[in-house]
Design goal:
mainly alpha, three-stranded antiparallel β-sheet, 7 helices, 3 strands
């Protein structure tokens, strides 16, 4: 109940050695597990801080079970573990702490996520092809306005005709707005076709 380790199994010893524990003095029976976690927490380990809080809550009875998934890489590979804490019915006030290696599952999930992203990307590229006519129409409109305005200016300049300031200002403003519109269309196309993670958010469809 005070956090002292009563017993460990071979899997725990193997796990501890893989995490640089050099002797049973730090991870075996008689060691205060809560104190070890607290010291690690004081050194800035946020996972250890969460573990201490969770373990204490089960010891006090304010929580029936506690679980925590955390990352714990070795020098050569990424690793994920799942911490489970639950009451030990055979020992008054005691708990059982278990660490499960979830690396294989997490790597499989990561692989599946990358495959989903590949499929989404392929779907986007295919959709861009299908939307090409619509995109061309969207781009043609601002380009036509820009072309018409620039031809108007060129015609006036070649004939050395004066352009009234209000006309010059209005048409320049219009050109600027349509350049912005064309740029945004192209930017959206590039963003749509880029291979990246999909961001999901709620939107108002009516709006």
């Amino acid at each position: 109940r005070e956090g002292t380790i009563l017993s460990v199994n071979e899997s725990w010893l193997k796990f501890a050695r893989e995490n640089d524990a050099t002797s049973l003095d730090h991870i075996g029976p008689g060691v205060n597990y809560l104190e070890v976690c607290r010291k690690s927490s004081d050194m800035g380990n946020t996972t250890a801080r969460s573990a201490v809080d969770g373990i204490r809550s089960v010891l006090k009875g304010s929580r029936k079970v506690f679980s925590l998934e955390y990352r714990c890489d070795s020098p050569t590979e990424k690793r994920w573990f799942h911490l489970s804490v639950f009451p030990f019915e055979g020992h008054k006030g005691g708990i059982i702490v278990a660490h499960t290696d979830n690396t294989a599952r997490k790597l499989a999930e990561e692989k599946a996520r990358k495959r989903r992203e590949e499929l989404i990307h392929m779907g986007r590229i295919s959709m861009l092809g299908e939307l090409s006519a619509s995109i061309a129409h969207e781009l043609n409109q601002p380009l036509s306005v820009i072309k018409t305005a620039s031809r108007f200016f060129l015609k006036k300049i070649r004939k050395k005709e004066k352009i009234e300031n209000d006309i010059l200002f209005t048409m320049s403003e219009e050109i600027d707005s349509y350049v912005d519109r064309a740029t945004k269309i192209i930017d959206h196309m590039r963003e749509f076709g880029r291979k990246s993670e999909t961001d999901l958010e709620k939107v108002d469809i009516n709006e």
